[in-house]
Specification:
This is Probable membrane transporter protein. It is a multi-pass membrane protein. Belongs to the 4-toluene sulfonate uptake permease (TSUP) (TC 2.A.102) family. It is built from ten helices and no strands. By secondary structure, it is mainly alpha-helical. The longest helix has 25 residues, at 97-121. The chain is globular, with a radius of gyration of 16 Å. 48% of the residues are buried.
């Protein structure tokens, strides 16, 4: 923490607010938090440093939307998600910081592509199919372990299945709360979460609360289409920066 500059703290503070906002309103904005953490911290450490803040945001989202959850959908996803997380753990264990940083950038660009594909398919494709849960679960598990960026994959799955807004938010909240808790022992074992990273989390938790407060009030008022276009633009810019 002592080595962080004022700009680093500003980036992390904005990222914390966006975590809360993403958990209670527009999930796609969470990709920006991933990019901001990776810009302010070493890429490997950024993944673990962000995870406790995501879990705190998950707790706020679960509290807000706890009655709107489809447990059958989650049970179909969890086995393949676990496999994806384990694959992500193996990947993190063998790559260096440069590869990790570029992987995060590449994953975020893939998130954008998935989002655009989702928009094209959501109105015409509402079938889930037997292959959807295992495939999307595997992708969500790997991307959330490597880059805390499984939100777009999960969003694609839920929207393609025709979930209404509240059921979407409630199911996603419980999904990431459980999955992110599952990731904690692996992150600790890889040295991505330690005492110093937890002190950083304590300094930033107020930002998550602020973002969650704002998200609850914006969810029914915001022009989602315009907002998502801005999110995609900033995510692409941040991703290209990580790929350098």
């Amino acid at each position: 923490m002592s080595g962080l500059s004022g700009i680093d703290w500003a980036l992390l503070g904005v990222a914390a607010v966006l975590v809360g906002l993403a958990k209670t309103s527009i999930g796609g904005i969470g990709a920006i938090s991933v990019a901001l953490f990776a810009a302010a911290l070493p890429a490997r450490e950024s993944s673990g440093a962000l995870l406790p803040l995501l879990i705190f945001g998950d707790m706020l989202a679960v509290r807000a939307y706890r009655r709107h959850v489809d447990w059958s959908a989650l049970l179909r996803l969890f086995p393949s998600v676990a496999v994806g997380v384990v694959l992500g753990v193996g990947f993190i264990a063998v790559v260096d910081d440069t590869v990790m940083r570029r992987t995060i950038g590449g994953v975020l660009l893939a998130v954008v592509a998935l989002h655009l594909w989702r928009q094209r398919r959501a109105e015409t494709d509402t079938s889930t199919g037997r292959w959807r849960a295992p495939v999307f679960g595997l992708l969500a598990g790997f991307t959330t372990m490597v880059a805390n960026a499984g939100g777009a994959v999960m969003s694609l799955y839920l929207l393609s299945a025709g979930f209404p807004k509240l059921a979407f938010l409630g199911t996603a909240a419980w999904f990431f709360f459980i999955v992110n808790l599952f990731k904690v022992p692996f992150s600790v074992g890889l040295g991505l979460i330690d005492g110093e990273s937890l002190l950083l989390n304590a300094a930033l938790v107020g930002g998550v609360l602020l973002g969650a407060f704002a998200g609850r009030r914006l969810i029914r008022r915001i022009d989602q289409a315009r907002f998502e276009r801005l999110v995609l633009l900033f995510t692409v810019v941040a991703s290209l920066n990580l790929l350098r």
